[in-house]
Each structure stands twice: as structure tokens, then as C-alpha cells.
Automatic annotation (TrEMBL):
<dbReference type="InterPro" id="IPR039261">
    <property type="entry name" value="FNR_nucleotide-bd"/>
</dbReference>
<dbReference type="InterPro" id="IPR006058">
    <property type="entry name" value="2Fe2S_fd_BS"/>
</dbReference>
<dbReference type="InterPro" id="IPR054582">
    <property type="entry name" value="DmmA-like_N"/>
</dbReference>
<keyword id="KW-0560">Oxidoreductase</keyword>
<keyword id="KW-0479">Metal-binding</keyword>
<dbReference type="Pfam" id="PF22290">
    <property type="entry name" value="DmmA-like_N"/>
</dbReference>
<feature type="domain" description="2Fe-2S ferredoxin-type">
    <location>
        <begin position="236"/>
        <end position="321"/>
    </location>
</feature>
<dbReference type="InterPro" id="IPR036010">
    <property type="entry name" value="2Fe-2S_ferredoxin-like_sf"/>
</dbReference>
<feature type="domain" description="FAD-binding FR-type">
    <location>
        <begin position="3"/>
        <end position="105"/>
    </location>
</feature>
<protein>
    <submittedName>
        <fullName>Vanillate O-demethylase ferredoxin subunit</fullName>
        <ecNumber>1.14.13.82</ecNumber>
    </submittedName>
</protein>
<keyword id="KW-0408">Iron</keyword>
<dbReference type="InterPro" id="IPR001041">
    <property type="entry name" value="2Fe-2S_ferredoxin-type"/>
</dbReference>
<keyword id="KW-0288">FMN</keyword>
<keyword id="KW-0285">Flavoprotein</keyword>
<dbReference type="Pfam" id="PF00111">
    <property type="entry name" value="Fer2"/>
</dbReference>
<keyword id="KW-0411">Iron-sulfur</keyword>
<dbReference type="InterPro" id="IPR050415">
    <property type="entry name" value="MRET"/>
</dbReference>
Length: 321
């Protein structure tokens, strides 16, 4: 995987909605940017050493710019605050090449797109891609209010506006989204995509699974997650397969942090188990999965885990490091 950083300039910073700004990024050398597909994101290296993932929400056919949307999150761990308060037009940032952990299933007979709040960013790119290829889809966009709905005018002016349904929390009850009704009858070939706040996504996925949607037809991307601490969290050992070295992981310590203190650096980004940057192969032992990145089937296989947040159910984990 190409880990080289790309130097970009903030060509434009725009207020898209209350507490949401978009940033248009162009290559500092004027060159074309690497191509991307709908659902892709880039890692943005922020002032102060933070790295955060932001979905690309411009037309995937564009090579002269990337567009990202950022919500000022009151519970920010520093990323969104840095983007809103310190990153201005003209500033130069370092980003990764686009990565896609949330791709469209091109064999779908129909797509159902659900966006909650700032989760519109990858979903909008998907809608534009599906519209461009004349693929059938329906989009539902839920937000707290019209003033907090990013890209509202862009969607209303689009050629697929008739396929989009807006649902405002402060609006009339008749326009609110009923997930049990929408997801009641899963059909072969119909794929569901959801992105947004964790509570919204949990509600969508729980409703879909309860209605019998096959896991293969559910696609989702979490922006952030609260890593759940447990009274059962205990110390355990991690063995590095290449050297046989054993590192003790304390009950209040992450695997990634303990390994870093032992001089073993693992690439990390979100530190919440949502981005997959730190994904590591497990050769022996049973992980205690706390991530939101792996599917339930991938977690059940127990052959990989996210050392930024996940732990071990067994006394020893042997890692492919």
C-alpha cells in the first residue's frame, strides 16, 4: 500500500451548514490528484500531530481537487476543532492517497442509501456515481434541522433530486423516517449503505438485521466510536512472531501503546477501531474485539484485530509482527 503523503493546499473553505465546513483540496504542485471511487476517504494530517479520516464528497471523476466536509463536534478529540479553528484557505496540509473501505457493490440491482448528519459525505458521492451510471437507487438523508443539512442546495439542484428524501428531526412527524417500514422486506440484489452518527447507524443496522437483511447486503462506515471499557479487561501477553519477544499488556493499556513503549510502532490513525489502519494478523489466541471496523464474520474468524482498542480473551496473543 502506498503510504506516501500528498501535499495539498486548501483552495477554498466554505460554510455548508451550521457547524459544517467543506474544504476544497488541490495539489500544491498543480498536478492531478490520484483517482478515487465513491465511498473513499483520505487521512488528513492536522496541525498538532493528529490524523483524521474524512470522506471525499466531490464527483469521483474529478482529478483536480478533493472535497471533504467536517462537522465541528462538541465531543471532538481535537480533530474537528483543529479543522474548523486553525485550518484556513491557503494552508498546506499533508494527506494520504484515497482509500476505500466503503465501496459500492456494482452488482447490486438497486441501492438504498441512508445518511445521518455529516454521514452525507460518502453517501452523496455514491448517489452521484449511481446517478451517472443510471443505476437505480433511493436516498434518505436524516438531519437535526434544515440549517444543519450540509449540501442541501447541491442535492436539490441535482439530476437525482427526486430520488432523495429529507427527514428533519424538528420537522412534521409525517416526514420523519420509519426504519421498520423502509427496511421491512429485504430483496435479493438490493444493497443498503449507511453512514452517520453511531446511534443512527446502530438503529439502521439493528432494524435491518431484525428484518432479515443478509449481512452481505449491508454496507457501513463508522466515523467514530466509543471504545467500551469493561471491568473484565485484564492484563495479558502479546508475542511477536518474528522475534519471539513477549510484551505484557496492562489492564489499563492498549496493545498499540504497550508495543510503542517497547519500541514496536504500529501505523495508527483513529485510535477508536473504526478506520482499520492498525489492523494486525493474529496467529494464535482469541482477541476480544472492541472495534467497529471488522464485520461480525471477520471478528468471529479471530485471525486479525485492531490493537488500538481491542484486547485478548486468552492469556496470550501471537501477532504477525
Amino acid at each position: 500500500m502506498n503510504s506516501a503523503k500528498i501535499s495539498v493546499r486548501v483552495a477554498r473553505k466554505s460554510q455548508e451548514a451550521l457547524d459544517i465546513c467543506s474544504y476544497e483540496l488541490v495539489a500544491t504542485d498543480g498536478a492531478a490528484l490520484p483517482g478515487f471511487s465513491a465511498g473513499s476517504h483520505v487521512d488528513v494530517h492536522l496541525p498538532g500531530g493528529l490524523t483524521r479520516q474524512y470522506s471525499l464528497c466531490n464527483d469521483a471523476s474529478e482529478t483536480h481537487r478533493y472535497l471533504i466536509g467536517v462537522l465541528r463536534d462538541p465531543a471532538s478529540r481535537g480533530g474537528s476543532q483543529a479543522m474548523h479553528d486553525t485550518v484556513q484557505e491557503g494552508d498546506v496540509l499533508q494527506i494520504s492517497a484515497p482509500k476505500n473501505h466503503f465501496p459500492l457493490a456494482h452488482a447490486a440491482s438497486r441501492s438504498l442509501l441512508l445518511a445521518g448528519g455529516i454521514g452525507i459525505t460518502p453517501i452523496l458521492c455514491m448517489a452521484e456515481r449511481l446517478a451517472a451510471s443510471a443505476a437505480p437507487f433511493e436516498m434518505h438523508y436524516c438531519s437535526r434541522s434544515q440549517e444543519r443539512t450540509a449540501f442541501l442546495e447541491r442535492i436539490r439542484a441535482s439530476g437525482f433530486a427526486s430520488q432523495v428524501h429529507f427527514h428533519f428531526d424538528d420537522g412534521a412527524s409525517v416526514q420523519k423516517l420509519s426504519l421498520p417500514d423502509l427496511l421491512a422486506e429485504p430483496q435479493p440484489g438490493v444493497h443498503l449503505y449507511v453512514c452517520g452518527p453511531k446511534g443512527f447507524m446502530d438503529a439502521v443496522l439493528q432494524t435491518a438485521r431484525a428484518s432479515g437483511w443478509p449481512e452481505a447486503q449491508l454496507h457501513y462506515e463508522f466515523f467514530s466510536a466509543e471504545v467500551v471499557k469493561s471491568d473484565d479487561d485484564a492484563s495479558f501477553d502479546v508475542k511477536l512472531a518474528s522475534s519471539g519477544r513477549v510484551v505484557r499488556i496492562a489492564a489499563d493499556q492498549t496493545v498499540a501503546k504497550a508495543l510503542a513503549l517497547a519500541g514496536v510502532e504500529i501505523p495508527m490513525s483513529c485510535e477508536q477501531g473504526v478506520c482499520g489502519t492498525c489492523l494486525t494478523r493474529v496467529l494464535e489466541g482469541e482477541p476480544d474485539h472492541k472495534d467497529m471496523y471488522l464485520t461480525p464474520e471477520e471478528q468471529a474468524a479471530n485471525d486479525q484485530f485492531t490493537p488500538c482498542c481491542s484486547r485478548s480473551k486468552s492469556a496470550l496473543l501471537v501477532l504477525d509482527l
